[in-house]
Amino acid sequence: MSKFYTALEIAEKLKIKKTTVYELIKRGDLQSSKVGKQLRISEEQLDEYLNRTETREPLHVPTFQPESSVLKRDYLLHSSGLILSGQTTPALELLLSRMAAHPQGMPVLQSHLNSYNGLYSLYFGKVHAAAVSMKPEEASCLVPGVPLAFVCLYHFPIGFYVLQDNPKGIFTFQDLDREDVILANREKGSTRRIFLDHSLMEAGVDTDNISGYLNELVSDLSTASAVLSRRADVALGEEAVARTTPGLSFLPMGILPMYLVLEASSLDKPGFAALLEIIRSESFLSDLFGQTGYDVTHTGEILYL
């Protein structure tokens, strides 16, 4: 018969505070069970936690230092460059490298912001353009009263990262509230988090029942690393990361667009013509498809809202 421990006994075993044990349970890092009305941790659940926290070979996850607001302000006011927000993707890296080499190109400062925060910065004039993966009608609501141009970059598959061969049989959003499943979540405002929350609402899944829902990470590489190191069982991200990460499987759950969003009037300003020319070039389309395999059928098309 399995032995059960109280939170205090676990705290004493691990030499941590009792409140830390509750925090581990809340984040989904440590599984627990209800015995009557009391919270208990079985020996197997404790062993599972200890095994997951053993030292493993981690994925290389780049860290991004917060940009200095003074630097961004000075760059915006005193240079002829552009500030573009967006989290690192192969498309943005390719676009920025081409912009630097273009005869009419300008220096571009990348601000590592997610979709929601990028639109917020666009609204307040802190960036010139934002890389956003949201429906245009939803994105335009975050920049009220401003005519916008949505330049399509590509469409990409979004789905679950799971261990190779999907040992826990995770196939649907309803599976996320299973007691044996731990989620590695993304931060609020990110494309993955917005897509997840919409999908959970449509599926009728209560986020309070999802282990790890409050455990927020800030990139696809970090959530993929959490799954690969067995600190989590599933995460939501784009296909390209899973394809280049041995040991992971990718389960597609939908297709999302990626847009470069800017004020419509900006298209007539210096630098943006070069940006658009690059996006619409055959070499950009070819290299982007070759690197990611994503759908570039509508790349370069503009939607005005």
From TrEMBL:
Domain PBP: from-to ranges: 98-280
Pfam entry (one): PBP_like
Classification via InterPro entries: HTH_17, PBP_domain, SinI_DNA-bd
Residue ranges of domain Helix-turn-helix in the record: 5-52
PANTHER family per the UniProt record, alphabetical: BLL2305 PROTEIN
Name this polypeptide is given: Helix-turn-helix transcriptional regulator
Organism of origin: Blautia ammoniilytica
